[in-house]
Design brief:
Elements: H1 3-9, H2 23-32, E1 36-44, E2 48-55, E3 60-63, E4 69-72, E5 78-82, E6 91-93, H3 102-113, H4 116-119, E7 122-129, E8 132-137, E9 142-146, H5 151-164, E10 172-174, E11 182-183
Parallel strand pairs: 6-7, 9-10
Antiparallel strand pairs: 1-2, 3-4, 4-5, 7-8, 8-9, 10-11
Length: 184
């Protein structure tokens, strides 16, 4: 986020005594910033008003038909559109590229349930429905996850499968029924 943009939007309040600051204007300006996930305002007498901002962070990207890519956060809010394919977050493949599709929420739930080390290996999340989530790992191996339920158990099973059968030795891991996981 550009701090100068927020400062410019609130320029009319700079230099005012704290009791005269228009808190409604601050609320309006902060809520109009699409990259602001949340914020808090703290009055520090005698003359300081501290605004703390938590920015939205991309969790993945959606490939658009025109060759651009849209970075989105876990709530489906667009952070930005870029022309170069992002390499730091996975591609999200969902029906009609619609973040309101239930598959999007299921895919995000699965992605966020993964331990950091495992999440860092994910290059794509394919979520056709809420019960049909597939993860693609670096190296091309696919993980058939199923739905977001039992995520911790599925993560543990997948971690053990990856230790025994590293990516490259097999092409598919199926943890959709974690008690009877399969590798192919």
């Amino acid at each position: 986020m550009d701090a100068a943009k927020i400062t410019a939007a609130l320029a009319s309040e700079i230099g005012k005594p704290l009791p005269l600051v228009n808190m409604g204007l601050i609320q309006q300006e902060m809520e109009s910033q699409s990259l602001v996930k949340s914020y808090s305002v703290e009055s520090l007498p005698p003359h300081t008003l501290l605004i703390k901002v938590i920015e939205r962070v991309p969790v993945g990207f959606i490939a658009n038909a025109d060759g651009t890519f849209t970075l989105v956060d876990p709530a489906g809010v667009t952070i930005e559109s870029v022309s170069a394919k992002p390499t730091t977050v996975p591609q999200l493949t969902i029906p009609d590229n619609d973040v309101n599709n239930p598959g999007f929420r299921a895919g995000i739930d699965v992605l966020q349930s993964l331990p950091a080390a495992l999440a860092g290996q994910v290059t794509q999340v394919i979520a056709k429905t809420t019960d049909n989530v597939v993860i693609v790992l670096k190296g091309g191996a696919r993980v058939f996850w199923g739905g977001p339920e039992n995520a911790a158990f599925k993560s543990n099973v997948l971690a053990k499968l990856l230790t025994i059968n590293p990516v490259g030795s097999v092409s598919e891991y199926d943890v959709s029924s974690p008690k009877t996981a399969v590798v192919r």
